[in-house]
Design a protein that fits this description.
alpha/beta, eight-stranded mixed β-sheet, 8 helices, 29% helix
Length: 318
């Protein structure tokens, strides 16, 4: 008996997504939702807001000891290969809530449009629009009181893991463009965790089988690409924007020793450190750990060390 059209899989990646010949898309991970809560047992309140018809976010506000005191603003871009996960899933709700609490910051976790329904650059554009919306609250303006009342917009930090790490880099580049940041605001730093970067112009010790898989992945999320050395996939490829153009003063690159993306993350760090970028570049590598281990094992010692380093980075100079 012939298989029905809807049963024929035309694309599958890492047991996270299936696309069928009919066009039906099945996301296999990251679909659960944790409700937002103003009276959370953790002491961190959360709520969901709509930024535009395409972009939404989950906001986190810890119990701030001095209500009148302004605190740093963290903008977080979730991972998930540009095509799955959300800020509302248990993984990201719990992690960003914990980070907001530990660092005592207002956090904004962005929900951007995802591939393949909305291929790249949709996610980049959505995250930039969300960043601009956050910045619009400087000087007490804007529509969101948690940001307007508590945010210190001279202490903005952006962060993301995996695909979100890639988005963090792209957002920092865009923030470096002339006139991109509102007067009186400052993108203090960027934390790029287990980032997705890939290309043919890069580290030599990468398995050919994985390179072929990642080439297929990139064309899936960015069908209009020029190839795997598209500057959005490989920020160090020939013709990529200069890394000196990052619009933040500090960068923290976090790696995991057993991460399949580790070599590319290291390649990015080395390229940035030697590029002439005038800011501070730091690196942290967690031994024996896999890709985004901290989301799945937040209570392990290495996850606690990573959290401490991120908190210290956010609050440096405070």
């Amino acid at each position: 008996m012939e298989r029905g059209e809807d049963e024929e899989v035309t694309f599958e990646f890492m047991e996270a997504i299936r696309v069928y010949k009919s066009g039906r898309i099945e996301r296999l991970l990251g679909n659960d939702i944790v409700p937002a809560s103003i009276e959370s047992p953790s002491g961190v309140s959360s709520k969901d807001i709509t930024i535009s018809p395409d972009v939404s976010a989950r906001l986190f506000l810890p119990n701030i000891i001095e209500p009148a005191k302004k605190v740093a603003v963290l903008v977080y871009f979730h991972g998930g290969g540009f095509f799955f996960e959300t800020p509302f899933s248990p993984l990201y709700h719990n992690y960003v809530s914990s980070l907001a609490s530990a660092a005592n910051v207002v956090a904004v976790s962005i929900h951007y449009r995802r591939a393949p329904e909305h291929p790249l650059p949709a996610a980049y554009d959505d995250c930039w629009a969300a960043f601009q919306w956050v910045v619009s609250h400087a000087d007490g303006g804007g529509s969101e009181p948690w940001l307007a009342n508590h945010g210190d917009f001279k202490r903005i930090v952006i962060a993301g893991d995996s695909a979100g790490g890639n988005i963090t880099h792209q957002t920092a580049l865009r923030a470096g463009e002339e006139g991109a940041l509102k007067t009186g605001t400052k993108l203090e730093g960027a934390m790029i965790v287990n980032p997705y970067f890939w290309g043919s112009e890069g580290p030599p010790n990468v398995e050919p089988e994985m390179s072929a898989k990642m080439d297929k992945f990139w064309k899936f999320v960015c069908p209009g690409t020029t190839g795997i050395d598209d500057p959005r996939s490989n920020p160090l490829a020939t013709g990529s924007p200069a890394l000196t153009g990052l619009g933040c003063g500090r960068v923290l690159v976090c790696l995991a020793e057993k991460d399949f993306l580790r070599e590319w993350g290291l390649f990015y760090y080395q390229g940035l450190a030697s590029s002439g970028y005038e800011g501070t570049v730091e690196i942290l590598e967690m031994k024996g750990e896999e890709h985004v281990f901290h989301l799945f094992k937040p209570e392990c010692e290495n996850a606690k060390e990573l959290m401490k380093r991120m908190v210290d980075f956010i609050n440096q100079g405070n």
